[in-house]
């Protein structure tokens, strides 16, 4: 691709563009690419493998110089078949593809410890830890280990990432209405935390007096519109910059041996009014 055949186009595949985390990541990637004279072809795979397949074919047909993907409905083989330089975010594709993530495990520990420090004892994790290696699962493991170290029992309420916000809200409403002891919730992302806060408000449960809540992501959007939410902040701008840098390296030398394939970026606890 260094023989004058570059199209100066990069493809990016995300799981869900309406989520502010992915929107902010895309904005960061697009800005850096634009500064360097590249154009971005954005594909919202919508967690649909057929769609992801068609998008991959489209990127191939457009002869993009490389691909950034965070949606892995498709396995490594499909990506390898396309034979383009590729970098991945959030989800592991293979040890041959560089992956950039936040320190999800440590974030899970920080969030749980913040609830414990605030006096919580009956803390639920709300999220959908499923596939090994996905970000939610790492957050969940951080939660489990921190609860165990504190000698506290752990509890999980699954709220599938794939489910609609309505289904999530109903599940959380049931949890809040049940007679289970519950004084703190670690939600696997901020949007889930917002749904939970809404249900608590409807039920007259006071936050943080009766219930403490912390989320994960810390997007600018949520911090602007719900500045009281405690959360774990992912360094979204840094994630975007690193993804682009690694992709440029792959484009310059696609066969370069990877000394390191996993890049884990630090997260920060944002203490706030909900804890
Ligand atoms: O809110 C979207 C979530 O999906 C983010 O936390 C991101 O890291 C991914 O797991």
From TrEMBL:
Sorted UniProt keywords: DNA-binding, Repressor, Transcription, Transcription regulation
Superkingdom, natural source: Bacteria
Keyword DNA-binding: yes
Transmembrane segments: none
Entry GO MF terms: DNA-binding transcription factor activity; transcription cis-regulatory region binding
Record-given protein name: LacI family transcriptional regulator
Species this chain originates from: Lactobacillus porci
């Amino acid at each position: 691709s260094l023989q004058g055949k570059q199209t100066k186009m990069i493809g990016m595949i995300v799981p869900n563009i309406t989520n502010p985390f992915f929107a902010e990541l895309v904005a960061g990637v697009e800005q850096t690419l634009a500064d360097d004279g590249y154009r971005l072809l954005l594909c919202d795979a919508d967690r649909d493998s057929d769609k992801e397949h068609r998008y991959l074919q489209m990127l191939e047909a457009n002869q993009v110089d490389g691909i950034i993907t965070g949606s892995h409905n498709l396995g490594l083989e499909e990506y390898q078949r396309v034979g383009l330089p590729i970098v991945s975010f959030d989800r592991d594709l293979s040890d041959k593809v560089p992956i950039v993530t936040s320190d999800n495990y440590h974030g899970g520990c920080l969030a749980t410890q913040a609830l414990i420090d605030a006096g919580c004892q009956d803390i639920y994790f709300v999220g959908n830890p499923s596939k090994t290696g996905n970000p939610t699962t790492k957050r969940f493991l951080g939660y489990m280990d921190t609860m165990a170290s504190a000698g506290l029992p752990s509890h999980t309420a699954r709220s599938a990432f794939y489910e609609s916000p309505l289904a999530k809200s109903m599940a959380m409403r049931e949890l809040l209405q049940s007679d289970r002891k519950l004084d703190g919730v670690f939600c696997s992302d901020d949007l889930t935390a917002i749904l939970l806060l809404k249900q608590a408000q409807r039920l007259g449960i006071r936050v943080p007096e009766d219930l403490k809540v912390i989320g994960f992501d810390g997007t600018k959007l949520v911090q602007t519109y719900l500045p009281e939410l405690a959360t774990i902040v992912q360094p979204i701008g840094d994630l975007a910059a690193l993804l682009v840098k690694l992709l440029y390296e792959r484009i310059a030398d696609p066969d370069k041996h990877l000394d390191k394939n996993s890049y884990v970026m630090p997260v920060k606890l944002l203490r706030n009014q909900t804890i």
